[in-house]
Amino acid sequence: MKKFIDYDESLTILSNIEFKVKNKEKSFLTNSLGKIVAEDIIANDNSPILPTSGMDGYAIRFEDQEKEFIEIIDKNPAGTVIESEVTKGTTIKTFTGSLMPKGSDTLIPIENVEVKDNKIYITQKVAKGFAVRAIGENYKQGEVLIKKGTLIGFAEIGVLASLNISQIYVYSAPIVSIASTGSEILDIGEEQTNNSQIRSSNHFTIEALAKKAGAKTIQMGTVKDDMDSITEMMTNALEHSDIVVTTGGVSKGDYDFVQDVVKDRLKAGVLFHGVKVKPGGPILIAKKENKLIVSLPGFAYSSTVCAIIYLLPMIYKFMGTKRELPIVKARIDRDFPLLMKKTIFTACNVKYIKGEYKIDFDGKKQGTSAILTNMLENPALLIQKEDSQDIKANDLVDIILLNELK
């Protein structure tokens, strides 16, 4: 078997993958949240198009603040265009969002005046142009407001609505097919006939991760350990999806057939098979034309960690977004030696306390790479690079915030 490569080398290989131009599709604004903008969004006008009031008050000429009083000559509700103009010694009561009346250049807030006999008496002066929104304050005509490749969030929805855009071009989400392999595994609802059988969770966990990342998914279920069944499943998955994910069958056991199908029957180009990571060392990633095959180990925790660090970035890349895994610095509560020359991902608890993230390992179980329950509650993954030093209590360390995955 080929020597396992370093984790950083595996990331470099994946970063150099080029996918063909992604398909575009039109999406209604109300359905576009979480999708990726496929074209620059450009302002078709200034906002605001004319000077506008930023609060309720009285539109005046700045220099008239020196007068004893200013006469009120009209009201200017939002959504109307009045004919009256502000001239020397006069003011127009103006409301938030109203166009500033002609002749005015400043707005006195209502709390800065006393009103008597249809006149205002200024109790506190303001600077010239106060509370006046200038032409183009929000954005100017021709300005690129949302760049191609942007993930659409709440702010993008609001800006698009302000531009009167009801439909936009977005990149089509990649289709991810997921299957768990193994003669010992059972799908939900299948009857257990002997004590050696286990209930598979991998294909559901990975489907949830892929959906959260914005992909469309095809659930292939469980597949028994034989070459023909795996070949049929993977051939079908490659025909209907952009990324095929399997769990199990990538080690060197007598019944680990996934690697043989990928390499020998599908003739896919193997990018790497085996990475010096824990958990998940035997991971295999291959490319066939414009399709990607991600074959993960079978243990639940192991396959989930590998899906996070390898599958999610590939979904982001396929979608044309610059999204990255949420890696932050955190303060560790204990010594944590590096036990082997691998990049190790360890489940921990994370809290945000007094301006920094802090991690501990309270309640986390020690054992094999099958303990998925270690990812419940407020989980994170501690990252120990293979060339790093032993971690000491109170050191700042790198973690992946699992509840912040997108």
Automatic annotation (TrEMBL):
Family of the protein in this entry:
Belongs to the MoeA family.
Q: Which GO terms describe its molecular function?
A: metal ion binding; molybdopterin molybdotransferase activity
Per its UniProt record, the required cofactor names are: Mg(2+)
Q: What is its EC number?
A: 2.10.1.1
Q: Which residues form the MoaB/Mog domain?
A: 177-317
* Entry keyword annotation includes Transferase: yes
Provide the alphabetized UniProt keywords: Magnesium, Membrane, Metal-binding, Molybdenum, Molybdenum cofactor biosynthesis, Transferase, Transmembrane, Transmembrane helix
Residue intervals passing through the bilayer: 292-313
* Functional summary from the UniProt entry: Catalyzes the insertion of molybdate into adenylated molybdopterin with the concomitant release of AMP.
**Full protein name:** Molybdopterin molybdenumtransferase
> Which terms in the GO cellular component ontology are assigned?
cytosol
Q: Which pathway does this chain act in?
A: Cofactor biosynthesis; molybdopterin biosynthesis
GO annotation, biological process: Mo-molybdopterin cofactor biosynthetic process
Q: Reaction catalysed?
A: adenylyl-molybdopterin + molybdate = Mo-molybdopterin + AMP + H(+)
Q: Which PANTHER family match?
A: GEPHYRIN (PTHR10192:SF5), MOLYBDOPTERIN BIOSYNTHESIS PROTEIN (PTHR10192)
